[in-house]
Design goal:
The protein has 389 residues and is an alpha/beta fold. It is built from twelve helices and 22 strands.
Length: 389
């Protein structure tokens, strides 16, 4: 990535290629970027800091970008530590600089930096407030719960740049940049996905802006085909399916439920469904499983019974869907049990607690291993799932 985004805006973020788990839960095989920017004008604004894992790199890049000048402002859009960890360092290094943030962010700062006296050091801004740097003017847009309550975005009016906080972010270090959509989707649904209504509110505000470029806090700067990215965010935040197809997510103890799930996928293919994705909940990335459930229009869950309930990997998956506000899907159920099948009841109960869910009447019950009689049930489940809605 070219550090000079425009003649006045410079990228000073860093890649983290060694992080194993983002937020201590999401695998990031391609790493992650922590993005920060400097706007140089009559006055200088630094747009966010980065994670403490890369403090030394960030401070060196900041000082290089400043070219001996002193920053006037630190704009804090988000207080999560992967973006705000160096506020304390900045406050000590540049005591004359003003820290600009939302009221809730200012309230949070002492919670993270007990040793810093923020009295007289902060400027609280609200929706529509502006800050003039010279030729550049920053306009602040409040975005509560995208995905923390203190979040704000910043629109630079002269160059039409939207500094978007965690919105439009993605997993992956910039030096390992690949196709945007998959890792952006996995990031969105696992990090922001619960807050679709709030994202919709933000998109309505963004519709009133003339945006030429989006600068997120993770992932690449977006300069072209912005309608594509904004359109995906609109679809995702409405909880509408992005792709017509079926996810078959299974949790199998000894392999018999897995065999049934694979056969179910074949039946769906035979019925003309080209997009069928098998997810092994015992082995595949949970974030991928969650992302896929949101991506496709339909889902089948297959699980073994366990301790008078459901096998824990399936419970964990459905719990993730619950807390991420999964909704508006047609779902079929396959359960397995050798003496007292209980998985179907638990799965049905968890799914029915989600919004606007249509659970198929044909629950397939397998006793120990799949038999010829079960195939008829599976055919009936597939036909019901694929019936014209």
């Amino acid at each position: 990535m070219n550090d000079n985004i425009t003649p006045y805006v410079r990228y000073i973020g860093t890649d983290d290629k060694d992080l194993d788990l983002f937020e201590s839960q999401y695998v990031v095989p391609q790493g992650i970027s922590y993005n920060s920017y400097v706007i140089t004008d009559e006055k200088i604004a630094v747009m966010d800091t980065i994670d403490q894992r890369k403090t030394d790199e960030w401070t060196a890049r900041l000082e290089e970008a400043l070219e001996g000048r002193t920053p006037d402002y630190l704009i804090v859009q988000h207080m999560e530590p992967d973006h705000a960890a160096n506020i304390g360092w900045f406050a000590e290094k540049y005591p004359e600089a003003t820290i600009v943030a939302s009221a809730k962010a200012v309230q949070m700062m002492p919670q993270f930096f007990e040793e810093v006296n923020f009295a007289g050091r902060t400027q609280t801004v609200k929706e529509g407030d502006t800050l003039c740097l010279g030729q550049h003017t920053l306009k602040f847009i409040m975005a509560p719960m995208v995905h923390w309550p203190e979040v704000m975005l910043t629109y630079e009016e002269s160059e039409k740049i939207l500094f978007s906080a965690d919105a439009f972010g993605k997993f992956g270090a910039l030096c390992r940049e690949g196709e945007w959509t998959n890792e952006a989707r996995r990031y969105y649904f696992n990090i922001v996905g619960k807050y679709g209504a709030q994202v919709q509110a933000l998109l309505k505000k963004a519709a009133g802006l003339d945006i030429a470029m989006i600068c997120p806090l993770h992932g690449p700067v977006l300069k072209e085909n912005l309608g594509y990215y904004i359109g995906l965010y609109d679809t995702w935040s409405k909880y509408e399916p992005e792709t017509e197809g079926v996810v078959v997510a299974y949790a199998s103890i000894h392999g018999n439920t897995a065999a049934a799930a694979r056969r179910m996928a074949e039946i769906l293919n035979e019925k003309g469904i080209a997009e069928v994705m098998l997810i092994d909940l015992c082995r595949d990335d949970m974030a991928l499983a969650v992302e896929s459930a949101f991506r496709y229009s339909k889902m089948i869950v297959a699980a073994s019974s366990y301790d008078a309930g459901v096998f824990p990997p399936m419970f964990d998956f459905l719990h993730h869907l619950q807390i991420k506000n999964f909704q508006k899907r047609r779902v079929g159920i396959i359960e397995n049990g050798s003496w007292a099948p209980t998985a179907g009841r638990v799965m049905s109960c968890m799914l029915s607690e989600m919004k606007s869910m249509e659970i198929m009447e044909h629950t397939v019950t397998i006793k120990s291993s799949m038999k010829k009689a079960d195939l008829l049930q599976m055919e009936e489940l597939a036909e019901e799932l694929l019936a014209t809605e």
